[in-house]
């Protein structure tokens, strides 16, 4: 009952000073709106990175040679020849948390079809590759394990390669092309995947059996990579551990020695890239928080003015029986009402800004519920924090002095 | 025999200003009975304002006894004093002290807002009744800027009545008003007094004292005179004697 009265009094004071209250709120409104919009941008970019990586196969595990620091200088992973075909076979046989495994050997070269040519990369893999990369075929078929065993000269190519070497709209499947002057028969065309988040064209590839690429193009007997997919996304971390143990045994590493290979799941890749965008989000939120702080100081300022202006009113309220605590509550409620109303308007403006950014700037955004809850809570706390001191000052006034104040 | 509303016994109040001690009240004793209309007179510096602050429970005496309606004020805390002011005293000020841009009825309701025993409906009802008592039953929703000085003071009087105080305490309540309007206000006070309301009126205008039943004159912190007025003038009659207004 009493509290309700105080809320009414405070509400009345706000309504009587509409313009001033609105200007005071502006700081809070802008602060809250920017916190929400910034977090939405941050969350949005994080989600878009996550979805791109998931598109590349979210339970994919990459095994690379290297990470060998026994020498004074570290070599780059690709130069090291420690990953062998035998390693791949052991992994395939023993790692039961993996559903698909393929060796990868890759090299650059020129794709030639008649008078057209195009620089691309050839990947030597086995048929599991499509499952691991989560990609289908738009026409033709994938090569088989028989092709791998016989090192057949067949390829499946990406759309970018098709566009560049079959420029006259010819159907590529069944045609012969040359890669580094070695003739291959095109047996399939991959589905278009477009660019990934890192700007890499995922359609600019030539895929062939790894045996063919090893023997006929690169003339090597080691592997550049082994890629695999865990049976589920949840098992990815355990699969990484399993593969690591298998490889350590295979490479006869002592306990004290570090791995001479690296095994990474997509999850780690996601967190690496997410941490960059998280950093950015933290920065954005820090800037937005400063405006919230300034908004709070604005409230404190206006509450001071209000207490000064209404000294006589405070004296009167005390004379007719208002206790110090009543006066304190009245001004505190007033400050909280200003900040909460400002917060509410800020949330609406922030959501509006997010919709605008999404639709007109085409940035990915995602409004997190927690950002609304947090910025709203911060508002209420700002009101209490910055309203307290002026309210305290009002409540400590001597009624006699306050009544005589001109 | 009516009971004493106010009992004051050897009341002293001193202020310390730097190294100097100012004795504002130097041992004052008097009682006010229920239904009295007392004026407290004195020039500036006589201790009149200090007396008013203590009577209004805004200030506490340094020594001596002050009882209002049987409650000794000396040992009360700030909050307890606020409750006494809320329940036992009705204040009227020289400058009305109404809340700006707030309707008459809301101004009158103000003291009851601080009394949690009064419900919203009762508060409104009592405010309307108080405004009717001072003759403003048709101006409930006017704001102070839409009212004349005399009407504003009437709103203030209604506000002082609304909590059914044991005593109305008026501080130079006619000081800002012209003669005609101040006679009107005095006549209203007399009317209220007739209904049995105790009034203490602090003023420095001698003619105001002629309307009251008792006068206490202060000088330099002591009581110089305390006399009953046996020939109380009627403010209404005085008002009738004033020349007609030009317009």
UniProtKB/TrEMBL annotation, chain A:
Chief location? membrane
**Mind telling me what this protein is named?**
ABC transporter permease
Q: Which organism is it from?
A: Patiriisocius marinistellae
Gene Ontology terms for molecular function: transmembrane transporter activity
Keywords on record: Cell membrane, Membrane, Transmembrane, Transmembrane helix
> How is the protein disposed in the membrane?
Multi-pass membrane protein
Q: Give the family, as the similarity comment puts it.
A: Belongs to the ABC-4 integral membrane protein family.
Say yes or no: keyword Membrane present: yes
Localization: Cell membrane
From TrEMBL, chain B:
Q: Please give the coiled-coil regions recorded for this protein.
A: none
Q: Which InterPro entries match?
A: AAA+_ATPase, ABC_transporter-like_ATP-bd, ABC_transporter-like_CS, ABC_transpr_LolD-like, MacB-like_ATP-bd, P-loop_NTPase
> Which protein is depicted?
Macrolide ABC transporter ATP-binding protein
UniProt-listed Pfam families = ABC_tran
| Recorded superkingdom | Bacteria
Provide the family line.
Belongs to the ABC transporter superfamily. Macrolide exporter (TC 3.A.1.122) family.
Q: What molecular functions are annotated in GO for this chain? A: ATP binding; ATP hydrolysis activity; transmembrane transporter activity
Ranges where the ABC transporter domain occurs = 6-245
One Gene Ontology cellular component annotation held by this UniProt entry: plasma membrane
Q: Which UniProt keywords apply?
A: ATP-binding, Nucleotide-binding, Transport
